[in-house]
Design goal:
InterPro entries: CutC-like, CutC-like_dom_sf. Belongs to the CutC family. Pfam families: CutC (PF03932). About 40% of the residues lie in helices and about 20% in strands. With about 210 residues, it is of the alpha/beta class. The chain has one domain: Copper homeostasis (CutC) domain (TIM Barrel, Alpha-Beta Barrel), CATH 3.20.20. Strands 7-4-3-2-1-10 form a 6-stranded parallel beta sheet, with helices on one face. A two-stranded antiparallel ribbon has the order 5-6. A two-stranded parallel ribbon has the order 8-9.
């Protein structure tokens, strides 16, 4: 399968510029990639949107590292972040709320509705991997029904190499609603991306070393 989208996860405008120059054609912007990515500061968002030009930028909305079960204060923080990103001219955000191995549909509904109101596209990030496997099909269907058309997933625990998780990723690709993109990440690199894309039958890949 020919790769059409190479999404580079970055933590600065300089890194975004570098990855775009190398051939990345979508950016996921974070702070603290060592924590799996959290919300970047406003200055970094402004600078990255500027250097990216016509290249799409997906901005991480995650108030802290650790798990993906947030309290109401953190939820309000995320809602404020959505407003800021929209005000800065952002067009796409990524977030996920998972509690006790299940998608937190209440909080996700609130976040998605706010993003929709602000004309922000929504991507489900790797919090998806915290959902127990027998609920992932339902979660995909629910997300798609609520306008989420892309899921970033490693296919399992980040401690397991992605090459060992290809069967689960293939299951997700094959069972995702028509029109939903399963975006593999976490260990996808310029060296293995083509092989992974071929095995999974996909055209979009994500990583910090994707180009």
């Amino acid at each position: 399968m020919t790769i059409k989208i190479k999404e580079a996860a970055v933590d600065s405008a300089d890194r975004a510029q570098e990855m775009i120059a190398r051939g990345a054609n979508r950016i996921e912007l974070n702070a603290r990639l060592d924590l799996g990515g959290i919300t970047p500061d406003t200055r970094t968002v402004i600078d990255t949107l500027t250097v990216a030009g016509n290249i799409p930028v997906v901005v991480m909305v995650r108030p802290r590292g650790g798990d993906f079960a947030y309290d109401n204060t953190e939820l309000n923080q995320m809602l404020e972040t959505l407003q800021i990103i929209a005000d800065l001219g952002g067009q796409c955000v990524t977030f996920g709320v998972v509690r006790n191995g299940a998608l937190d549909m209440d909080m996700m509904s609130t976040l998605i509705e706010t993003a929709n109101t602000l004309k922000l596209d929504v991507v489900m990030h790797m919090a998806f991997d915290e959902i127990v496997k027998d609920q992932q099909q339902e979660a995909m269907n629910w997300l798609f029904a609520h306008g989420v058309t892309r899921i970033l997933t490693h296919g399992g625990s980040l401690t397991t190499p992605i090459t060992e998780l290809l069967p689960q990723l293939k299951f997700l690709v094959d069972h995702a609603p028509v029109g939903m993109t399963i975006l593999p990440g976490g260990g996808v690199t310029r060296d293995n991306a083509d092989k992974i894309a071929d095995i999974l039958g996909i055209s979009e890949v994500h990583g910090t070393k994707i180009v």
